[in-house]
Structures are given as C-alpha cells and as structure tokens.
Request: fold
Amino acid sequence: MNWDYATYEYALSAALLTCAMFGMGATLKFSDFRGVFRAPRGLCLTIAMQIVVMPFVAILLAKLFALPTGIAVGMVLVAALPGGLFSNLATFIGKGNLALSVSATAVTSLGCLLTTVFVLKIFTAADLPADFSMPAGAILTEVAFCLLLPLVLGMVFYRMAPQASPKVSAWCVRASVVILLLIVVAALMAGRLQLTAYGWKTPVVLFLFAMIALWFTYGMAFLNRLNVDDSFTVAIEVLMRNVQLGLLLKAALFPASDTQHQEIADGVLYTLLLYGAITVVISASEIIGKFNKLGPIFGRSPKSESA
Reply:
C-alpha cells in the first residue's frame, strides 16, 4: 500500500496525545490534585529532575559521545518532556504511589506548556540550522488543545459518568497504543525510521541516559528520605517521558514534508521511539524487582520516612 505518511504524521501524533490525555483525565477527580500538597518532596524532586537536571545530562552525553545533531536534539526534547500516561500505568502495576504519579504528571504536563519550549531554546539553539525558527506560539497552542483540554474534558467526563469512566479510560489507553504502533509501522514503511541507521553507539547512549535518569533519581529520593513506594514512583516518572507529546512536538517542529531538515527530524523520531521502547523494558524490570524486593532500593525497609 502506498500511503503518504508525511500527510498524516501530524494528525496521528495529535490523535495519539489527545486520546491518551483524555484517558488519563477520565481516571481523575478534581480533588485528586490535593496530592500535590500531600507529597511535596516527591513532586518537587520530579520537577527538578525533569526541568533542570536531565537536560544538562542529555547535552553532556551528546557532547561526550559526539552524537549527530538530530539525536542530540531528540535527547534534549526527551529530557524536557513531562511524565506520561504510561508512567502512571507502570506505577499502578508496580503498586507505587499512584496519587503522587498522577499529580506529578498533571503538574509537569501543565508546566511543560512553558518549560519544554524554554529548554529547547536554551539547549538546542546552537545545534539547529541557522535559518530555523522555533514556532513557540504554535507549539503552546497545540499543546494546550491536545494536552490540557482533553485532560480537563476527561476529568469532567469522570465527574458526570464515574461508572463508565474506567471502561472509557481503558479503551483510550488501548487506542493510544494502537495509534503509536501505527506511527512506528508507517515511519518504517516510509523509510523515516531505520533502526540501524546510527550504529551501536546511539542505542547505548540512550540506554545510559535512561539508567542515569533512573538511578540518579533513586539517589536523590534516598537523600530526601522518601519511602520505597514514593522512590519507585518518582524514578518511574522521571524515566518514562510523554513520548506521545514528543511525537506531537516533533511533527510541529520537523514535519515529514519538510525535506530541508529531514536529517534532524529522522534523528528526533528515532530518539523518541527508541527511548520509549528502552524505558518500557527498564520499567518492567523495576516492577519485577519491586515485587521480589531485589536490589538496594527495594530491599530496604518500607518504613523510611516520606514527605
């Protein structure tokens, strides 16, 4: 089948994010946001790691390993993204602090309306083409309508139909996964994503980046005396980023029809999809470790102090 992927890339990315955010909103009550104030240490740590620490780590690794510009921009974009719906799902499966996870996702998702654009401008301006201009206003508008609005609508739906909300939320999650798979398949068929295009170094660096995000967050959680459940929750929140939002921003910044910046666009797409796959594997191993109380984090007493 000859499918013009460039024509549908942006629409697919927007549909993916909108569906996922509505599904997350359909599991929330407005009163759930009180969790933001009930666990301030975990929330503040998540914000600091996502907005301040990880962009610096991304740039450091990109410079240290001399990564291609597209990969470097993709890593900074990943570092600037908030946590996503799948971090909430992983927290739920791993029996972490779901209220903290949802609150952190909500706050960082709202904050990213400003912080993501700011981080991209600060850390990637030198790597972008000289004639490239950041469509900040357009991005803020798109994120507001594809992220904030469906989240609020999902919460309103939960309030109006609480019994139907779990089923609707589950179907939204399934639909977002199907759309994500469709994007991956379409990108492969259109030649936009070649898994071996960057050799062995780039996947290794992305894996290293993910492990730094995980274990540095664990270390900071230990220093802040968070309990095991909260430590796991914050670490997963920092590890698993909102790849759906990243795909939307990638489609806005580097649309598939823009052949001038295709090399950067391909690197960003490669980074988003591969990092998302890596974090799913790592989070699964963390869930197994938590269930079996393996390692220095899950083997310690659950009675450690929390916020």
